[in-house]
Design brief:
By secondary structure, the chain is of the alpha/beta class. It is 38% helix and 20% strand.
């Protein structure tokens, strides 16, 4: 057991699974000798060589398409997309091919593929290096979508994804790569990629969230609980498709008040689906309307630091939302 950052845990998960399974390889831009723009694949090229850690052209459709073919051939590819923003040229491959292969082949073929990509803002990445559109893929049957919030889950869920028989999109918040730290076992282990995690028990209010928002909500909740007589439950969704409906319903029924927090904008989003689940199954248990907090309806995150701050979900915004619900 050792304390590791999020990016170190991800790297260790890839390394151990590549050592355990010769079928696992990595394809992406600058993943080789450079080790990736965020260092996620640092040292893997030196250990496994050109045949298993391969630099690609600047062509995301090519990266994913080649990996789909390799998966059909029996390999276990990891396709690294340098930024989630750049995944759009590969959407046809992901949705039209990877997601549908098992269905269209009558269960004869699967696509055991993991697509990794950093997402999110707060790093002054501006329009094309800050987006959060994970919800786009959560609307597609045949795909699984995972967003870890801590190093322990990141390693375990990545190993689970690499052993999954179907395509998994594994999104990593770039601001959390080195700011999120925690104990990670040295040995290989798995964490299920279909369950939520109740990271903090509470009685009066539930916060549903994921990714880097989990740690932010924990910090704000701790401060609020010290100042006021309120008990806050925090549920890390972590698996965005499939959502853990049972945990969502149980927590909402338990506390009666719900806040859903995400960095992405609210329209047709993860918060929309969680809110719908709660309205369908928990209406008579609620003591207040479901409240959602997310990014504004602006096409992209600005570069200007003050405007970026305006766009982001901040601790101050989370605190205000909690206090409004508590007072309801």
């Amino acid at each position: 057991m050792a304390v590791k950052t999020l990016v170190e845990a991800i790297r260790e998960g890839m390394r151990q699974e590549m050592e355990n399974d010769d079928r696992v390889f990595i394809l992406g831009e600058d993943v080789g000798a450079k080790g990736g723009v965020f260092g996620a694949t640092e040292g893997l090229h030196a250990q496994f060589g050109d045949d298993r850690v391969m630099d690609s052209p600047l062509a995301e459709s090519c990266i994913v398409g080649v990996c789909i073919g390799a998966a059909l051939y029996g390999l276990r590819p990891i396709a690294e997309i340098q930024f989630q923003d750049f995944i759009l040229p590969a959407v046809d491959q992901i949705i039209s091919e990877a997601a549908k292969m098992r269905y269209r082949s009558n269960n004869d073929w699967g696509v055991p593929l993991v697509i990794r990509a950093p997402f999110g803002g707060g790093v002054h990445g501006a329009l094309y290096h800050s987006q959060s559109f994970e919800a786009m893929f959560c609307s597609v049957p045949g795909l699984k979508v995972v967003v870890p919030s801590n190093p322990y889950d990141a390693k375990g869920m990545l190993i689970s994804a690499l052993r999954d028989p179907d395509p998994v999109l594994f999104f990593e918040h770039k601001k959390g790569y080195r700011s999120l730290k925690g104990d990670v076992p040295d040995e290989s282990y798995t964490v299920p990629i279909s369950t939520a995690n109740v990271v903090q028990e509470g009685r009066d209010l539930t916060i549903f969230t994921y990714g880097i928002m989990v740690s932010q909500c924990q910090e704000v909740a701790a401060a609020v609980q010290q100042e006021r007589s309120v008990s806050i439950e925090i549920v890390d969704l972590r698996s965005l498709r499939p959502l853990d409906r049972d945990t969502i319903v149980a927590s909402a029924r338990k506390t009666g008040k719900v806040l859903i927090v995400q960095e992405a904008n609210l329209a047709v989003s993860i918060s929309s689906e969680v809110s719908a689940i709660i309205s369908e199954s928990c209406f008579e248990y609620l003591d207040a309307p479901v409240k959602r907090l997310g990014g504004p309806e602006i096409p992209a995150m600005p570069f200007s630091p003050p405007l970026e701050h305006f766009y982001l979900v901040t601790p101050e915004k989370i605190r205000t939302a909690i206090e409004e619900l508590v007072a309801y």
